[in-house]
Amino acid sequence: MDVLAALKNFSAKEEVLRRLVTPEIEAAVAKIPKPVGSFGFDAWGYNEDQFKVGLAGAKWLYDHYFKVQAFGLENIPRNGRVLIIPNHSGQLPMDGVLIGAACATNPHGPRAARAMIERFFPTVPWLGNLLNAWGGVIGDPVNCAKMLDTEEAIIVFPEGVRGSGKLYKDRYQLQRFGNGFMHLAINHATPIVPCGVVGCEETMPALYNIAPLAKVLGIPYAPIAPLFPLPARVVLNFGKPLHFKPVKTEEEVTERVEQVKAEIRRLIDKGMQERPSLY
Amino acid sequence: MAVEKKKAAPAKKKTVLVTGAGGALAKRVISRLHGRYNVVAVDFRRKVETDAGIPSYKVEIEKRGFEDIFLNHKIDAVLHIGRIFAHEYSRDRRYNANVLGTKRLFELCKKYGVGQVIVHSTYYVYGASAYNPALLDEDHPLKASEVTMDLVDSVELESLANIYLWKHPELNITILRPCNVLGPGVRNSMSLLLSRPYTPVLLGFSPMMQFLHVDDMADAMVLAFDQNKPGIYNVAPDDYVPYQRAVEECGCKKLPILSVPPSLPKMVSSLLNWNAFFPPYLINYFKYPVVLDGSLFNKTFGFKPKRNLNDIFTFYRKNKLISD
User: Which of B133, B137, B206 has the CB atom closest to A143's CB atom?
Assistant: First the structure.
């Protein structure tokens, strides 16, 4: 009879949710210092309940697929504004997902880190809203400034598609960094936490970029690469927060960007040595 | 200083002209001003029933008869709430009333020495685009006319008000850009939409929205009027909900519309003549967010909405239960 009663009340959706959203996830999200409105949403469409589901999926990838090792998590401030600046690689933004999962389940104080997403995502049905609900926001300087003013944690990849779209032969070579993040950090008195990502280069080694195809499809790049990310081991290294004082010229801004770049390079080298094996 | 002032002979009550007096918002504003001010009510649709002591006129502001009101009453301030909604009348008629009519109103204000004007604008002026950041400030470009010709009058009304704001500081113009205003008696597109049993939604799109109760909007307008700090202000709460969730909370059943290709929802709307509640030129506002930062208004005037989202939605939900 119990089985029958249980079957009667069975809901596939709830069952999946129950298994995905573990008590650990619930506890971590409950501790995140993130204000939301009366229906659990913020101005950019972040939603606590959907974030839990997304985090559950990301955490599974984090623990079991990419077997991530994270060091220096104590360097991410427990609250208050912060810019997390990593290197970018691996065609798909898996590095963003894994850094987000590391921040949200940080034992030293979880954060819901916001990732800047490409501008075409809001035009894609369902996906646009879903990415917003998980914390993604289109990479607009106004968005970034407003979020820093409300004490959010933001992940910015200053290399953009130059980093994620590079070929396997160029792996671990940092591409040109945009200066936008440094202006934001300086203007909004925000600490920068540099992050070195090792392993994402090996998840999708790209041999060649079919540029004409990318142009036709209206996407940033069209690589010849594995169809799905390979289970490479990923090592994340978060560095100590860097603080920068206001400067006058763009040249001085670029100098400070180079400092961050050098620190990321150091963190990548550290991660290379800590990585036990490629896969 | 203040005490001394009180002892002096009681100042003559100011006379306030309120346009669009038949609307839900104007009615509430009038009842808040009545007693403290001499109110004159004007509506272009009909002669509005008002309380004793409130003269009421049916006149179109772009017509000559409008000036007689300024001749018969010494108008000290104008609350320009009245405007023809996008679903009323044709585009030309609307343009004449909203843009040319407002220009005429400003000219009359200048001529008859009106000392304060409040202009009721709308968040539609920002335009709904996929690239909109959230929490738009007042200085964000107004892109509504880029999206559709049907909102040109809203944008032009604003630029007109802006010109007069800088050229004629003695008019003390305050422009208010509210988010969606809802509540009993409100007849704008969003309110009509959420009053329906079946409400169209675009499959896969549910933009963040802000809603303000019409009573809170009336409070906001009276605050802006009492404190007289000219400028442009967004009026919006710091609470957000996706459109499709609002539809559910209002007790509406969703009527899903295919959203790809992008021209399809517009076609559906014009074919079925959904002009009143889901007009083709507003489709983008159900697809992409226009989220306002209302903090400037809140700080400047000490405003905080008293009714939350649930209070607002409950009205629509209950109404459906009654009609069932």
Answer: B133
- Residue B177 forms part of a structural domain: yes
Best to test chain B binding among A146, A147, A148 (most B CBs inside 10 Å) = A146
The per-residue pLDDT string of chain B (324 residues; one tens digit each, 9 = 90 and over) reads 444 444 455 568 999 999 999 999 999 999 999 999 999 999 988 888 888 889 999 988 888 889 999 999 999 999 999 888 766 777 888 888 889 999 999 999 999 999 999 999 999 999 999 999 999 999 999 988 776 778 888 899 999 999 999 999 999 999 999 999 999 999 999 999 999 999 999 999 999 999 999 999 999 999 999 999 999 999 999 999 999 999 999 999 999 999 988 889 999 999 998 888 999 889 999 999 999 999 999 999 999 999 999 999 999 999 988 876
* E-state strands within B44-145: 56-58, 77-80, 116-120
Q: What Å distances lie between residue B167 and A189, B155, B160, B164, B301, CA to CA?
A: 38, 18, 11, 5, 24
Q: Residue B311 and residue B305: Cα distance in Å, rounded?
A: 11
Range of the domain at B84: 13-323
ipTM for this prediction:
0.88
Number of domains, chain B: 1
Whole-structure pTM value: 0.91
Interface of B with A in 282-301 (CB under 8 A): 288-289, 291, 293
What is the topology classification, in CATH, of domain A2-31+44-274? Glycerol-3-phosphate (1)-acyltransferase (3.40.1130)
